[in-house]
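Task: sequence design from structure.
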């Protein structure tokens, strides 16, 4: 967990959130980040139930752009945000 500045067990989730001018905010979509050393261990991925579509490494910014595409495709933003 890089934010702690030390090695620790943690999970990182890449998320997009909706925020408006009146301070309303909520998560729209998110995806679990899987480090490269996890992706290299196919047996571990299978044991943990990771879907085949997630068995290739993606950097956090790549996950974020993929989520943004999904938000646009599925029209997940509130009407006032469009």
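Answer:
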């Amino acid at each position: 967990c890089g934010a702690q500045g030390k090695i620790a067990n943690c999970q990182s989730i890449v998320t997009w959130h909706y925020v408006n001018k009146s301070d309303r905010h909520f998560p729209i979509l998110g995806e679990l980040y899987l480090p490269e050393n996890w992706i290299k261990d196919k047996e571990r991925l299978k044991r943990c139930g990771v879907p085949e579509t997630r068995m290739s490494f993606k950097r956090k910014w790549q996950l974020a752009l993929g989520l943004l595409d999904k938000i646009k495709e599925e029209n997940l933003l509130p009407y006032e945000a469009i």
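The radius of gyration is 15 Å.
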